[in-house]
Amino acid sequence: MSRKLRVAVVFGGHSGEHDVSLRSAQAILRHIDRERFEPVPIGITRDGQWLVGGDPLRELAAQSRLPLEGADGSESGCASGSTGARVLAVPEPFWSGEVDVVFPVLHGPYGEDGTIQGMLELAGLPYVGCGVLASAVAMDKPTAKRLFTSAGLDQARWLVFTWHEWERERSALIEHIERELGFPCFVKPANLGSSVGVSKVRDRPELVAAVELANRYDRRILVEEGIDARELEVSVLGNEEPVASIVGEIVPSREFYDYEAKYIDTGSQLLIPAPISPDQAETVRRMAIEAFRVIDGAGMARVDFFLERPTGRILINEVNTIPGFTAISMYPKLWEASGLCFRDLITRLIELALERHREQRRRRSA
């Protein structure tokens, strides 16, 4: 009998999405097929230390804003104190041959943006998900939007500026935002996810406060027009021949699907499948695959859309290359509704990582 593949599940990290990453890792560790794979949990603290051995997930969760989840998806407490994990300055298992494939579950900067992907490329290790280019492009919202425009994918109007520009030209920028986008609008850090640092803005004072909040997370600030729309999501899976799941809809418990509505409140609804027409669903799925290909995606992504209520227009919002894997996350839920259970989804993602790595090695050795 062949030995089990050792799969390093890497979670935590520097970004504002640290806590969400722990929940995603917990779900993957819970559902991975242990008859085929031996999971190796590797945690990264908020200050960049690597935790290996023992129970790094529980150790990081003791300081988390979000409790870990019980087997039924409910929140469960987490004991504090040391769990026997070793603290390393560098990811020793990657260089020592202790793992066969890596499953990064690092949402946001320093994980979803091409940084760890580049390190794994240097280490010669296969890893789940998009490569360096696609990860970096999708994480940088303005860059992704420019590529979507070049591909002819409709999207809401937007503009981007730096904090330096804001300090130097604040009055002019406010007037430009009012003239070109109007109120309400949304203000976001250019590089982040899970709706961290996102604000809905209705007037000038709220705009100033929202820009200051976004600047805590990024030197570049993205502003998007507010539209009356439903929020649709679709999951993409594959390498050279990606496929799209059925379409789901988010009905947020708050005015928009912010961090609290996603992970803290319990009133948000996930409608699977989304109550839209077959033609609309097909358009969303086609656009999702096109966006995935535009950024040169691989493995997985969740693609988010707006369905404008007054016009019926379908607008792409963004591509998430390491989507959430929590008990309430759309990515695994959409695949489950499409006929692929959580365990088999994880297996397929690992297979895609190995396939992509073999193809890369073949080209390098040619």
Layout: helices, strands, pairs:
Blueprint: E1 5-12, H1 18-31, E2 37-44, E3 50-52, H2 56-61, E4 68-69, E5 75-76, E6 86-88, H3 92-96, E7 101-104, H4 115-123, H5 132-139, H6 141-150, E8 158-162, H7 163-180, E9 185-189, E10 199-201, H8 204-215, E11 220-225, E12 229-238, E13 243-251, H9 259-263, E14 269-271, H10 278-294, E15 299-308, E16 314-320, H11 330-337, H12 342-365
Output the CATH topology of the largest domain.
D-amino Acid Aminotransferase, Chain A, domain 1
Question: How many beta-strand runs?
Answer: 16
Model regions low in confidence, pLDDT < 50 over at least 5 residues: 72-80
Task: Give the class from helix and strand content and strand pairing.
Answer: alpha+beta
Largest sheet: 5 strands, mixed
- Give the strand order of the largest sheet, numbering strands 1, 2, ... along the chain: 6-3-2-1-7
SS strand fraction: 15-25%
- Gross morphology: globular
User: CATH superfamily membership of the largest domain, which one?
Assistant: ATP-grasp fold, B domain
Given this structure, which CATH class of the largest domain is correct?
Alpha Beta
Radius of gyration: 20 Å
- By oligomeric state, this entry counts as single chain
Quote the distance from N terminus to C terminus: 32 Å
Mean pLDDT: 90
Task: Please tally the helical runs, counting DSSP H or I stretches of 4 or more residues.
Answer: 12
Helix content: 25-40%
Report on this structure.
- With 366 residues, the protein is of the alpha+beta class.
- The protein has three domains: 5-127, 3-Layer(aba) Sandwich (Rossmann fold); 139-154 and 228-344, ATP-grasp fold, B domain (D-amino Acid Aminotransferase, Chain A, domain 1); 158-225, Dna Ligase, domain 1.
- Helices cover 37% and strands 24% of the residues.
- It is built from twelve helices and 16 strands.
- The chain has helices spanning 18-31, 56-61, 92-96, 115-123, 132-139, 141-150, 163-180, 204-215, 259-263, 278-294, 330-337, 342-365; strands spanning 5-12, 37-44, 50-52, 68-69, 75-76, 86-88, 101-104, 158-162, 185-189, 199-201, 220-225, 229-238, 243-251, 269-271, 299-308, 314-320.
- The strands form four sheets. A five-stranded mixed beta sheet has the order 6-3-2-1-7. It has a five-stranded antiparallel beta sheet with strand order 14-13-12-15-16.
- A hairpin with a 5-residue loop joins strand 15 (299-308) and strand 16.
- The longest helix has 24 residues, at 342-365.
- The relative contact order is 0.14.
- The model is unreliable at 72-80 (pLDDT under 50).
